[in-house]
Amino acid sequence: MSRPRIGVFIVDDSAVVRQALTARLAESGEIDVIGAASDPIFALERMNKSWPDVVVLDLEMPRMDGITFLKKIMATRPTPVVICSTMTTRGAETTMDALAAGAVSVIPKPTSGLKQFIQDEGGDIVAAVRAAAASNVRGAVRQPVAVGAPPAASGSLATTTDRIVAIGTSTGGTQALEVVLTALRVTCPGIVIVQHMPEKFTAAFSARLNGLCDVEVSEAVDGDRVLTGRALVAPGGRHMELRRDGAQYRVRVFDGPLVNRHRPSVDVLFRSVAKAAGRNALGIIMTGMGDDGARGLLEMRHAGAHTVAQDEATSLVYGMPHEAVLLGAADREAPLSAIPEVIHKHG
């Protein structure tokens, strides 16, 4: 049985970009570009006649910027949106705003060499549209998070690094991580995170979360120590492992081949946590397309770690958590709203 075709609308002020994206998506054999426009005003007029399954959106355009357009869509007719943004510092910060406003994922767009980029990264563009089409933008809404009262103070809780939390996520993970991390207290165990995200965007993502959270959030640097109340995010384009250093935990950030088509890879992190922390670890796999992290989470469970998968109802894309559940890697499934309390109880 063939899969239903995906209708895509492209909004970008560059005619060259519109043509290149249209050609690459059409090559997939399952995606129809039903329209394209140079700015959001024209786009809305045409989309209202035939609403797409997925919107591919630039952020800097005349008459109405992409963020305003995105917020308008999500407020009136929630639709999966893939951001195609330039890989600049300013672009990264704006992209973080777009993800927070409800965009599903980001495809970095270079300032030059577009033709070569489309040839090299076209598979990522197609995969992003597929994931967006499968996403649950209407159902995976934010839920109020209730976290219990802090536990009684203890010296060990304030100083130990024995307890570790490892989180892996992909499509929809930026929003899910914001929900989880903003609900945590500074007494939570040290956290290591792999979020599938292009190079240059993880620094802006970490900085944004650090400004919103009580816990410290930063892009990981090789040798960083994992501490209570700190969350380290793997840099885009590099793998991250957990290492035991005497009585401490530190991260190793390194280059290497793609694993499960990703760098950083959740499996790389989870497997290292299984070896370094064993039963002292909590593994959490959240929303995302594909199966990265499922086998690593199983290794964590076999090593005695407690393992959790985000449930289908609150996952934007129930791909990675579902693969973990099918593999028997998760002790339990939990809604997004319950995950902060799971983390605190682990401490």
Query: What is the number of helices?
Result: 12
Q: C-alpha Rg, in Å?
A: 20 Å
The total domain count is 2
Helix content: 25-40%
Family: Belongs to the CheB family.
Pfam families: CheB_methylest, Response_reg
EC number: 3.1.1.61, 3.5.1.44
Active site: 170, 196, 292
Which terms summarize this structure?
five-stranded parallel beta sheet, Rossmann fold, 347 residues, single chain, alpha/beta
Structure summary:
By secondary structure, the chain is α/β, with parallel strands linked by helices.
What does this structure look like?
- A 7-stranded parallel beta sheet has the order 8-9-7-6-12-13-14, sandwiched between helices. A 5-stranded parallel beta sheet has the order 2-1-3-4-5, with helices on both faces. The chain has a two-stranded antiparallel sheet with strand order 10-11.
- It has 2 domains: 6-133, Rossmann fold (3-Layer(aba) Sandwich), CATH 3.40.50; 155-346, Rossmann fold (3-Layer(aba) Sandwich), CATH 3.40.50.
- Strand 10 and strand 11 form a beta hairpin.
- The chain is built from 12 helices and 14 strands.
- Helix 4 crosses helix 8.
- The protein is an alpha/beta fold and 347 residues long.
- It has helices at residues 15-26, 40-47, 66-76, 89-100, 114-133, 155-159, 173-182, 201-212, 266-276, 294-302, 320-327, 339-346; strands at 6-11, 31-37, 54-57, 81-86, 105-109, 164-169, 190-195, 216-219, 230-233, 239-245, 248-254, 281-285, 306-310, 332-334.
- InterPro entries: CheB-like, CheB_C, CheY-like_superfamily, Sig_transdc_resp-reg_Me-estase, Sig_transdc_resp-reg_receiver.
- Keywords: Chemotaxis, Cytoplasm, Hydrolase, Phosphoprotein.
- Residues 158-343 form the CheB-type methylesterase domain.
- Residues 7-124 form the Response regulatory domain.
